[in-house]
Every structure is written in structure tokens, then in C-alpha cells.
Amino acid sequence: MSIIRRLFQREPDPETITVHHEGVAYAVAVRRMAQARRFTLRVRAASRDAVLTMPPRARFSDATAFAERHGGWIAARLNRIPDALDFAPGAVVPLRGVAHDVVHRADRRGTVWIENGEIHVAGDQAFVARRVQDYLKREAKKDLEAATRRYAEALGVKVTRITMRDQSSRWGSCSSNGAINYSWRLILAPPFVLDYLAAHEVAHLREMNHSARFWRIVRNLCPGLEAAKAWLRANGAHLHRYGTG
């Protein structure tokens, strides 16, 4: 590298900014985005952190000042995120929107089953959390596959693949080749929420955008979409408190 080029090359930005509010330090991840036109802040419930997005040519010192001015907002939002909850014996876990106690059954064979409104887990206690999470993922796949196939048939489109993931920033995604990804955490929500997300992603096989036409398709498939969207706005972040991902 030439000396001149080295002189004018910008040093890499730090990955985080530390913001202090009322004696507590909060780490804020920093991302330069080509499409960003201004500084924005958001809190990620899944990773329990804050992210500052900045324009590509903005000064890092200005980003730092912006984060510091919003220290109170960052602290308040992060402190609202409920504590993480593992799927251990005694935990209360929502399954299809209904609270279920996790019960360890060391005296029984098998894996996981539902009985009297409880999630029963057989075998060694060390494997309870993993077995509960695996069970929830299987149930999510079953419900989402059924809802997706139903809406795809109604719309006359082809779904090539359905995959369960643990996406922190979205509940589902759809590619133009017919592959759909969902967050397995939708099994924790009431069924009408899961149905809405399936209708939403299937509708993208007709419209790969969020135009007025797209929303008309979703509404025709799922008339109760507004209630589902409202539920997600109010409760969606809390679904990320459960399990380990």
C-alpha cells in the first residue's frame, strides 16, 4: 500500500460504543449501512442489546454523540426486556399461547408429551431443556407446514421448502424460488398469530414486496391479520426470552 493511500485511508470503526446512564454502562453495536440516511437506534430483544445504524459517510464521533444523547432511551428499552427463561423443570412456557408447566418425569420412558396442560419430559434432568426446545421446534414445523400448505393451495402458488430458524429480526422470510423460513418461536404464540405469518409469507410468492396489492392478498387469506399484528407488536419481543435459540 502506498504512503499516500495509507494517509487517506480511514481507520476501521470500533464495533461498539459504550454509553453510560445513571452509573450503568450499556454497549451499543454500530453498523454502517449504505442505504442509511440518518442515525437510528433499535433494541434487539433476542440478543438483549442495542444497535446504532449510521450513514456510510457519517463521522463516528457524531454517532457516539447521538448514542450518548439517547442513553436514557437505551437504558429504558433494555431494562424492559424480561429476563431469559430456560426450559428447566418448573418453568412456565407458552405453547400455542397457553401457559404450560415443564414437569420432569425421571420415572418415565420416552421424550416429551403434553398431559393435563403440562409439558412432561422423561429421562435425565440434564437434557430437559434441550428436549423441550426440540419438541417445540417439531410442533412449530408441523403447524407452520400445515398453515403454509393450506394458504399456498388457496393462492395457487408452490412452496418448495419450509425451514425453521431462530431469526432475531424477523418472524419469517420468503425467497422467489418458493423457500420459506420461519422462526420456531411462533409456536409459543396463539394460533391466529402463526396463521397470519404463514399467510404473510405465502403472499410473497405473488408479491415480493409490501405494496397495497400484497396487503390485499394477505387480508383475503387471513382476515384477522390486524389482531395478529397487534399481538406481535405487544408481545413478540417476549417470545425471545425463552430457551437458548
TrEMBL record:
InterPro entries: UTP_pyrophosphatase-like (IPR053136), YgjP-like_metallopeptidase (IPR002725). It comes from the Bacteria. Signal peptide: none annotated. Residues 41-234 form the YgjP-like metallopeptidase domain. Gene3D superfamilies: Metalloproteases ('zincins'), catalytic domain (3.30.2010.10). PANTHER family: UNCHARACTERIZED PROTEIN YGJP (PTHR30399), UTP PYROPHOSPHATASE (PTHR30399:SF1). This is M48 family metallopeptidase.
